[in-house]
Amino acid sequence: MYRLCVIEGDGIGKEVIPEAVKVLRAILPDMEVIPAFAGWEYFQQYGESVPNETLNIVRECGAALFGAVSSPSQKVTGYRSAIITLRLSLDLYSNIRPVRSLPVISPRPDVDMVIVRENTEGLYSGRERLEGDTAIAERVITRHASERIAQRAIDLIKSGNRKRLTIVHKANILPISDGLFRDCVREIVSKNIERLVVDELLVDTAAMKIISEPDKLDVLVTTNLFGDILSDEAAYWGGGMGLAPSLNWGDGIGIAEPVHGSAPDIAGKGIANPIAAILSAAMLIRYLWKLPDEASCIEMAVNSALFNGLLVENNRLSPNIKTENITHAILDRLTQH
Is 133 a catalytic residue? Predict the structure, then answer.
């Protein structure tokens, strides 16, 4: 019996997550779904973005699917982003963001990289303060976090039969913090894989290579903010943010999360794209539930629906296609597999 905590969150999260659950149920009809709540809208009603009950449900299930979160653009007393709260409270220390070319809609056919992002510290550690007219944010890099994100990258390389690891940093400007991160990753790699190509890129160079030579990149490991920015940039090669999946993954616990935001401009119109949520669900069952064949079936169904033109118009995802129609096309291909 597989138990899944479902947190729809804000905006289009309420529309795309139920569609992803439909796809999972087609593969795992006995899956138990336990709803829970988190997000900006929940905070506005109850004064907290993530209640303890939600944290407990995720811990009990070990796996969750999270939709989207809205966040105010200025500080609101008592509020912290729901997804950051979940990551820190549950120690989901790695954020896994694959970027693969999709049929027809991707700008090129040969991209297949994974960005492994440290998910609990860096500039997202929440250490901000005002000193008079000066705002200060502390960037926290620890040996513990650097070593375990390195190990997670190595585990992914081994399980995915990949060949190259690129350490992304800015140690020329941040020699102490990024120097520690780089050295820790190199130490862990040297103890684990002998015949692995390991190189380094400064983050600005990595950004350029993601745009100019994405086919040359394999697995990238980096710190929190760098990983956040680079993975959003790389999503272009997979068809854009609306198709980008991710997994927040700790030890024996994880939350799959589409990369896109809550998209308030289209929320409620029934045209939100559920593919990122569906591919995130596939990641969850691949890594958390150890069901690689079932995950591949979902991914192939998405590819088939795109390749056969069921969702595409002029080499782009049809802009006015209904959310439920996208899901139906994928479910049709899934049953054929």
Answer: no
Question: Which is catalytic among the residues 14, 170, 178, 287?
Answer: 170
Catalytic status, residue 204:
yes
Q: Answer yes or no: 236 catalytic.
A: no
* Residue range 151-210, pLDDT digits in tens: 999 999 999 889 999 999 999 999 999 999 999 999 999 887 777 899 999 999 999 999
Cα distance between residue 111 and residue 237, in whole Å: 7
Q: What is the CATH number of domain 1-106+241-337?
A: 3.40.718.10
pTM reported for the whole predicted model: 0.95
Question: Residue 268: CB partners within 8 Å, gap ≥ 6?
Answer: 15
Q: Which of 155, 232, 236, 332 is catalytic?
A: 232
Q: Is 232 a catalytic residue?
A: yes
Q: How many CA atoms lie within 13 A of 204 on its CB side?
A: 4
Domain ranges within the chain, ordered by starting residue: 1-106+241-337, 107-238
Q: How far apart are CA 111 and CA 163, in angstroms?
A: 15
Taking domain 107-238, whether its CATH number is 3.40.50.720 is answered by: no
What gap in Å lies between CA 184 and CA 313, rounded to an integer? 47
Report d(CA 323, CA 275) in Å as an integer: 9
Task: Write out the two tokens for 51.
Answer: 């209640």
Is 124 annotated in the active site? yes
Tell me the pLDDT tens digit for each residue of 229-255: 999 999 999 999 889 999 999 999 999
